Amino acid sequence: MTPENTNSTVRPETSSEISFIIGTFILVMVFLLGVPGNLFIIWSILARARKRSVTTLLILNLACADGTIMCLTVFFFTYLAKQCWVFGRVMCKLLFYLCNTNMYASIMLITLMSLHRLVAVLWPHRVHALARRRNVLAILIGMWLLVFTLALPALIFREERLNKKQRLLCDHNHNSTSYVVLQFMTETSVGFLIPYGIILSSYMCILRRLRQSKFKRRVHSEKLILAIVVTFAVFWLPYHIINIVQVAAACTSEKSNLKETLDKIWQSCRPVTSALAFISSSANPVLYTFAGRSYIRADGFAFMARLFEGIASDSNGRKAEQVGREKMALGLKTSPNSTSAYVKT
After folding, report:
1. How far is residue 178's CA from residue 304's CA, in Å, rounded to a whole number?
2. Are 282 and 294 in contact (CB under 8 A)?
């Protein structure tokens, strides 16, 4: 996630000061919640979970990406609090590059989760072929290479510069309007609109199939992934709206009053919307805790590992459900035990 353009050359003073204060407060709270939360997820999966599924592996990658960016929030709330960049040119480029990397990685991992659930529901007999270690690793490596490539504009355009108050900023240095349009529309389209189109299409197909199914199982992973998807959208949508506003401002004539209005909007709102985007990385541990609350009394600190084991068993349950359907379609009998395997949660 990227706290883009947290300072500006021209801005309404009062609204900007409030925006900086709110943004700093949000980032401090995100740091206190997100760092231990994501570290706990990583520990639960690596040290305590006995069974791991593709979804669990994707959650592990998401927690690693979120945990890394949460550890870096100390730099960003210092930047917002001081309204001055004090960490040097190299860190200016590197930190915002990692932020962009996290943004793309988060949405792509969520998209992969949704596509995996789509395959599990529509073509359960193909899940195990896709879940082979070699295939999963190839997909993840390809995804990370794409993510690191898409985040390159942060390395290219981020520079230190002085504003009118002689404060040193880590800001974009776009030489033309086309660069503004290219960067921010790429972020919004590739980092939000296209993936969400895929995600929503996947869930429409999933819900349609579940409604047609005679064996309606309550699956942990469907509800949990849906919660992750909704949470990501809620906290990232304001950021991408501001991206569009900034692009519109860049494309508007310098002499237009509309340009001045649009500039004031994105410059004053950018710190808060960027800070809100950070919340999505700290919200996932809360979602997992809520989803795994039934395990807390029995398993203590291992409750999240049991939740992920339950997710791992969902794919097996779907396979059993598919086998049951095929047997019934062929007129074969199923034993009571085999029936209960896919009727129960």
Report:
1. 47
2. no
* pLDDT tens, position by position, 192-219: 999 999 988 988 888 787 776 654 554 5
Q: What span, in angstroms and rounded, lies between the C-alpha atoms of 288 and 34?
A: 13
How much of the chain is in helix, strand and coil states, percent to nearest 5? Answer: 80, 5, 15
3-state DSSP call for residue 160? strand
pLDDT tens digits for range 143-196: 999 999 999 998 988 988 887 778 888 888 888 888 889 989 999 999 999 999
SS3 of residue 134 by DSSP: helix
Q: What is the dihedral of CA 115, 119, 120, 126, to 10 degrees?
A: -140
What domains are defined for the chain?
A: 13-313 (1.20.1070.10)
Q: Both tokens of residue 194?
A: 């296209």
